[in-house]
């Protein structure tokens, strides 16, 4: 793992120098968080700062893309008036999450870089996990279509007697193809391109397909991403970063607060954000049983 402190004129920054430049610590937290965040796989940035403590968005369904039917026009008559469907408006309120750690004057004087690096890493992990929890809670309460799969991804047989081989429809690629079939039936032009699942299910895929896994996924236009936040035997097949919106009232911020009565400095980081699923049709949830 890269060290918290970058080099400066051939020397490493000291703990004291880093604390005087909170953006160095903030950038390190952001870097660590970005490497492991699940949320960006589902959500795209709003592109503007949230105002009014909430994200107002519309939930788009398949029916929202069509008006009432048009009719054949007879010569000399008007076209029929059509009525559109108003998308359902929703409001996602922002939540403020963060934490802090303290570093003493003695640790600063002794330049205990490892301590600072460990604390920053732990804080980054905690903030990342909390954001992912909020993101997946938004997905879980949305209208993402759920598809029950009769079967699991373990004990699959690809070679042997015909009566012992797992039928194609009962293999993982068959299940993933079912998700794309449902997306195609929505007639919204969605191309699912990312499989998000628990590491255990990702392991089952690797065991089943072996060295052919990459080619098998590529043939279906898919990539694989594993994250322990996803429940075991739950598989999301999604259009990457296009299921919902993430908005920030306050982006990731790091502050260093001097506490002289105890001769310590408090390093605190926080983010005020929220998530909204406005394109639930861009994801399909497979439940293995």
CATH structural fold name of the largest domain = Major capsid protein gp5 fold
The secondary-structure class comes to alpha/beta
* Element pattern in H and E: EEHHHEEEEHHEHEHHEEEEE
What is the CA-based Rg, rounded? 25 Å
Q: What is the total domain count?
A: 2
Number of strands: 13
Strand line-up of the largest beta sheet: 7-13-10-8-9
Structural description of this entry:
With 289 residues, the chain is α/β, with parallel strands linked by helices. It folds into 2 domains: 142 residues, Major capsid protein gp5 fold, CATH 3.30.2400; 104 residues, hypothetical protein PF0899 fold (2-Layer Sandwich), CATH 3.30.2320. The protein contains 8 helices and 13 strands. Strand 1 and strand 2 form a beta hairpin. It is flat. The protein starts with 6 loop residues before the first strand and ends with a strand. 29% of the residues are buried. The N terminus is likely disordered.
């Amino acid at each position: 793992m890269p060290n918290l402190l970058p080099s400066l004129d051939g020397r490493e920054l000291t703990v004291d120098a880093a604390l005087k430049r909170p953006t160095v610590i903030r950038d390190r937290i952001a870097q660590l968080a970005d490497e492991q965040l699940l949320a960006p796989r589902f959500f795209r940035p709003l592109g503007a700062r949230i105002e009014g403590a909430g994200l107002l968005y519309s939930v788009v369904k398949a029916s929202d893309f069509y008006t009432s039917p048009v009719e054949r026009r007879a010569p000399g008559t008007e076209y029929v008036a059509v009525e559109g469907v108003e998308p359902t408006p929703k409001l996602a309120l922002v939540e403020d999450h963060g934490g802090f750690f303290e570093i003493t004057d003695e640790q600063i004087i002794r330049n205990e870089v490892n301590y600072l690096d460990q604390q920053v890493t732990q804080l980054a992990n905690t903030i990342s996990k909390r954001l992912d929890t909020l993101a997946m809670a938004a997905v879980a309460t949305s209208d993402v279509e759920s598809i029950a799969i009769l079967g699991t991804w373990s004990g699959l047989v690809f070679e042997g007697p015909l009566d012992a081989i797992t039928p194609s429809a009962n293999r993982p690629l068959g299940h993933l193809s079912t998700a794309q079939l449902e997306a195609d039936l929505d007639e919204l032009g969605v191309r699912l391109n990312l499989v998000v699942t628990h590491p255990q299910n990702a392991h089952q895929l690797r065991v089943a397909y072996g060295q052919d896994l990459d080619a098998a996924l590529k043939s279906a236009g898919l990539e694989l991403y594993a994250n322990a936040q996803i429940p075991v035997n739950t598989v999301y097949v999604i259009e990457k970063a296009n299921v919902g919106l993430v908005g920030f009232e306050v982006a990731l911020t790091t502050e260093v607060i001097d506490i002289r009565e105890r001769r310590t400095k408090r390093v605190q980081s926080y983010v005020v954000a929220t998530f909204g699923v406005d394109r639930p049709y861009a994801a399909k949830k497979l439940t293995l049983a």
